[in-house]
Every structure is written in structure tokens, then in C-alpha cells.
Design a protein that fits this description.
Radius of gyration: 16 Å
Number of domains: 1
Strand content: under 5%
Helix content: 55-70%
Largest sheet: none
Order of helices and strands: HHHHHH
């Protein structure tokens, strides 16, 4: 967590929530993807979706493409998720898209920098995926309901609440 916190500390609350949502979505996708994505694929996918959102914010409709097949598949899933959130937000769709672009840029950055900051000789190509997976499991294990018991397992899809 020491690696991640300084890199997300300046996000707004909504950007932080979107970051966690998109991170959970990436981890969920990575579980079933064949071939599985590497950190570089995650960074490329996040970058391409963020660039598409930023370009659309300027009034230009252009879909930026990720380079590798795993990154393209992940980018498609991330793009659909952001589009769904924007559709749910209705009048605030442009704000959601701006915040999602910021969260995706941060996701890109942490995925690119993880291997440099946290050397992992066993799997350097998936350092961020491993770290994020551990972090998300730790958050889930620490969550308790009022009875002291861990809450029932959540559905496979991550959830986010929009104002």
C-alpha cells in the first residue's frame, strides 16, 4: 500500500471511487482472461480509454486503440463500464467521463511504475496486478458487518454508487 497511496492521494472522492471500481474490474477481467494481461497491457488499456474520453471531451469522436490483444480486450471492457456509468449519471455524464479519465490515467501510471518501484523477480510483468489483488483481498477481509462476521461474498461485478 505504501507504493499506491502517494499516487492516488490527490484524487477527488469520485475519482478515487472510480479508480477502485476500475481496478476491481481489471482484476476481475484478469482472472478469466486467456492470455492474462500484464501490467503493460493494463497501462495500455487504461491509457487508450482515457485518451478516448479526453478526446470526446474536446468534441472529437475518436476511439484510441490499445496495442496488444489482451490490452484491447481489457480496454473494451473498461470503455463499456465507463459508458454504463455515464449513462446512469444522465445529466452528469460529462463529469463522470472526466473523472473516469483521471482515474484511468492514474491506473495507467501505477501499472507502469509498479515494477520499477517494487521489484518482483518472480513475476515482474505482473507486479501491479499482484499488488492490487493483494490490496483488494485485504480490504475485503478487513470489512466487517455489525456482528463481527465478514459480509457475505459480493457478486462478481464491482459496484459503484453515483450521486
Amino acid at each position: 500500500m505504501g507504493f499506491l497511496l502517494p499516487r492516488i492521494s490527490d484524487l477527488t472522492e469520485m475519482q478515487y471511487r472510480l479508480f477502485l471500481y476500475l481496478q476491481a474490474l481489471v482484476l476481475q477481467h484478469a482472472k478469466g482472461a486467456i492470455p492474462g494481461p500484464h501490467d503493460a497491457d493494463v497501462a495500455d488499456a487504461a491509457s487508450s480509454v482515457a485518451a478516448t474520453l479526453e478526446t470526446a471531451g474536446k468534441g472529437i469522436i475518436y476511439e484510441h486503440q490499445a496495442q496488444s490483444l489482451p490490452a484491447q480486450r481489457l480496454a473494451s471492457e473498461l470503455g463499456r463500464a465507463v459508458a454504463d456509468l455515464a449513462q446512469q449519471a444522465a445529466a452528469q455524464a460529462s463529469r463522470v467521463e472526466r473523472d473516469a479519465a483521471a482515474a484511468l490515467r492514474r491506473l495507467e501510471r501505477v501499472a507502469r511504475e509498479a515494477a520499477k518501484e517494487i521489484p518482483d523477480e518472480t513475476a515482474p510483468a505482473t507486479t501491479w496486478l499482484t499488488l492490487a489483488g493483494r490490496m483488494m483481498r485485504a480490504e475485503g477481509a478487513n470489512a466487517k458487518d455489525g456482528s463481527g462476521e465478514s459480509p457475505s461474498p459480493s457478486p462478481d461485478t464491482p459496484r459503484i454508487v453515483l450521486p
